[in-house]
Amino acid sequence: MPFASRTRLRCATVEDARAIAELIAIAGEGIPIWVWREEAEDGRDPLSVGAERAARPDSMFSYRNAILAEHDGEVAGMMLGFRVDQPTGRNWAALAAVPSPLRPIVELEYRVPGAFYINALAVFERFRDLGIGTRLLQAAASRATALGCTRLAHQVFSGNRAAVRLYERNGFRQIDSRPIEPHPGHSLEGRVLLMVRPL
Q1: Phi, psi of 77, rounded to the nearest 5 degrees
Q2: Residues 174, 197 contacting (CB under 8 angstroms)
Q3: Distance between terminal CA atoms of the chain?
């Protein structure tokens, strides 16, 4: 059976919260685990904190904003995205209180009001090179169109060449960037790239 016919996309449910957290952690290359560890109490597993966030129906990182890819019945990948609101003066004023490793990411997100922002897209390693990332990007475009968005936006670390190539192959172009801020969750260097694709 062809690989494509063995993969299906579906809307996530609250039962998928743990898998969503695992895939957000992969997409964020250390940053989500660091954030969740800061929030964890009494030595709790950071992924459990992430799963609790994903299980909330009213969170930006909610399962309601996620589309999952399943391959042979197993969760293989995920796209989590939402429409970016126009930042207010209050949003900009609050930016100074955002932890420095996250500030460049928030600044870049504010650059694309009205866009459908792909906050996280990841595929588990054993399911890579099956075209699942491309299918999730297609699903993001469909969801964006349904929400009246005219472009997709995403951020990627410059050192993740495979991800940069995936987005370029799918019509994304870099419009801005910020230096990566060091933090305990990763040792990445380079820049955070803001990439967009018109719809």
Answers
A1: -165, 175
A2: no
A3: 32
Tens digits of per-residue pLDDT, 118-129?
999 999 999 999
Nearest Cα residue to 32 out of 5, 57, 51, 8: 51
Which CATH number is 58's domain given?
Answer: 3.40.630.30
Q: How far apart are CA 179 and CA 193, in angstroms?
A: 9
Single-letter code of the amino acid located at 119: N
pLDDT score of 17 more than 50: yes
State which residues form the domain around 22: 4-198
Q: What is the model's pTM? A: 0.93
Q: Which of 75-89, 108-122, 142-156, 176-190 has the lowest mean pLDDT?
A: 176-190
| Structural domain total, the chain | 1
- Side-chain-side CA neighbours of 161 within 13 Å: the count stands at 0
Which amino acid belongs to residue 6?
R
